Structure formats: structure tokens, C-alpha cells
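User:
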Amino acid sequence: MTQTIDAAAFQQMVIHAAASINAEKQQINDLNVFPVPDGDTGTNMSLTMNAAVKELEMLEDSAGVSKVAETAATALLRGARGNSGVILSLICLLY
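Assistant: Predicted structure:
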């Protein structure tokens, strides 16, 4: 059986991932103790994901999955905050 993800589903996946990180950002901040306990990892990841959400919300409904993926990837990279945001954006670019 072949399963596919259409553009709308992929867009919702990114939006829900951003909401999940936002909901847990303080717990992620609290985990950050190495190498310096600066406590902003969750905040930076949340800001990075929200950059993608803002760009995705401006896309036309007719955008295909490749356009949604390209928009998310470039917005993540451009909107990356801190080391954790850059790492998150690069992980997302790989997939």
C-alpha cells in the first residue's frame, strides 16, 4: 500500500510541530545545561519553527507539496535563532 502526503497535510504537520515545540519550550529550556545553561534552546527552536509557520500561512492553497516543503525549509533557515534553531533548520532541510 502506498501512502502519500499532500501539500495541505504537510503544511499542517509543520504547523502542529511548531505548536508542539511552543507548548513545551519551557521544558526544553530547562533541559539545556550543556555546555552553558543559558536556558533558551526551547525559545530559539520555537522562534525558528514560527518563522516557517508565518511563511506557510501566506502560501496560496494551490501550492504543491514541493512548494510547501521549499517554503518551510528556506523560512526555517532564514528564521533560525541561536545554535539550536540552526541545528533544527538543518535537520528539517535533510528531510
